[in-house]
């Protein structure tokens, strides 16, 4: 959450040396945030182009999960754009127009959360993170074949994060409502809860895909063309690791009360957007590969009811792969041509 961790981690009144350090880090954070937003914008428009070309949109309309993630891309980019615009306004006010109570110390303007622009900053950050949490939980729900029990803990973590951020924002808007000593522990909970939520949901998704792959091997069906299991896992892990590392670094910097945490505050929202835009772009590339083969590959497999004891038999079958890259779910239907039935 932008600019709140410094307030929560330190004393109520910052010293001059600390003020200068925060001013420098805050200014660099603005440029880093702008750079990340630029990357996000490129990925967003590129993903939209890939997802709407050559009848792709029509295909997505037939899949609820695909449409959920597609429309969410637009809402997340809208939030990120509003966020960046408000951030520009804040920095103009603080560094150019001297709106700070102490004109020579712009950092004091960013601590005035009673103003609309400063207060909307953490509000938008929380909206973006919560939106992302909902999408990841939904993906986990789909991958686990709509198993409600699997997402109970992730939902509880998300609700804990929402409650924590509400308390923090109430204190920021009017510190007199809640004593600082009472509000301070909630500041310390923000990043660990975000990190736990991200690791848990991503881990559940990866575990389900891995277990599905292992189960297919356990029954003695070994497909000679290993398609897209590894691809899906790589897309999910490599995309999620960006946000995970960011949150881990923030946990460390917050725990030692280092002003360098401000460097990452301005990048939280565009980073969340980058994760989903990058995943969409890479999944569309993988989807194109599947479309090239018309989702069907004819291959030879070794089928055995007990592969550890029997030698197996060679059968010519057609394996149809059903891959929902947006949700990460995969299942395969194998047709035995000798009997014209699924096995």
Give a structural overview:
This protein has 343 residues and is α+β, with helices and mostly antiparallel strands. Helix content is 68%, strand content 10%. The protein has 11 helices and 5 strands, in the order ααααααααβαααββββ. A 5-stranded antiparallel β-sheet has the order 1-2-3-4-5, covered by helices on one side. The protein has one domain (4-294). It has helices at 4-9, 16-52, 56-61, 64-96, 107-110, 116-143, 152-173, 180-218, 229-255, 261-265, 268-292, and strands at residues 221-223, 296-303, 313-324, 329-336, 341-342.
Mean pLDDT: 79
Shape designation: globular
Assembly annotation: single chain
Helix run count: 11
Order of helices and strands: HHHHHHHHEHHHEEEE
Number of domains: 1
Distance between the termini: 52 Å
Strand content: 5-15%
Sequence-ordered SSE layout with sheet pairings:
Blueprint: H1 4-9, H2 16-52, H3 56-61, H4 64-96, H5 107-110, H6 116-143, H7 152-173, H8 180-218, E1 221-223, H9 229-255, H10 261-265, H11 268-292, E2 296-303, E3 313-324, E4 329-336, E5 341-342
Antiparallel strand pairs: 1-2, 2-3, 3-4, 4-5
Helix pairs in contact: 2-4, 2-11, 4-6, 4-11, 6-7, 6-8, 6-11, 7-8, 8-9, 9-11
């Amino acid at each position: 959450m932008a600019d709140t961790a410094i307030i929560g981690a330190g004393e109520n009144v910052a010293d001059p040396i600390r003020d200068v350090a925060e001013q420098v880090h805050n200014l660099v954070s603005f440029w880093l945030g702008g750079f990340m937003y630029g990357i996000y914008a490129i990925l967003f428009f590129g993903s939209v182009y890939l997802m709407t070309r050559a009848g792709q949109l029509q295909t997505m309309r037939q899949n609820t999960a695909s449409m959920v993630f597609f429309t969410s891309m637009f809402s997340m980019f809208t939030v990120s754009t509003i966020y960046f615009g408000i951030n520009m306004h804040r920095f103009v006010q603080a560094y150019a127009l001297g709106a700070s109570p102490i004109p020579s110390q712009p950092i004091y303007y960013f601590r005035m959360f009673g103003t609309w622009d400063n207060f909307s900053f953490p509000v938008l950050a929380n909206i973006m993170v919560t939106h992302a949490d909902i999408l990841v939980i939904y993906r986990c729900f789909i991958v686990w074949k709509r198993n409600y029990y699997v997402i109970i803990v992730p939902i509880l973590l998300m609700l804990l994060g929402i409650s924590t951020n509400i308390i923090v924002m109430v204190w920021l808007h009017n510190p007199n409502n809640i004593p600082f000593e009472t509000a301070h522990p909630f500041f310390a909970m923000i990043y660990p809860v975000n990190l736990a939520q991200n690791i848990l949901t991503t881990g559940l998704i990866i575990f389900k895909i891995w277990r599905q792959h292992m189960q297919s091997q356990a029954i003695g069906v070994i497909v000679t063309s290993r398609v897209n299991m590894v691809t899906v896992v790589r897309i999910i892990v490599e995309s999620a690791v960006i946000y995970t590392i960011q949150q881990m670094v923030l946990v460390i910097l917050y725990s030692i009360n280092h002003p360098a945490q401000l460097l990452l505050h301005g990048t939280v929202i565009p980073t969340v957007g980058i994760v989903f835009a990058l995943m969409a772009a890479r999944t569309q590339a993988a989807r194109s590969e599947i479309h090239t083969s018309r989702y069907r590959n004819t291959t030879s497999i070794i089928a055995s009811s007990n592969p550890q004891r029997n030698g197996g038999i060679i059968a010519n079958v057609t394996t149809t792969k059903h891959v929902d890259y947006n949700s990460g779910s995969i299942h395969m239907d194998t047709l035995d041509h000798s009997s014209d039935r699924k096995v």
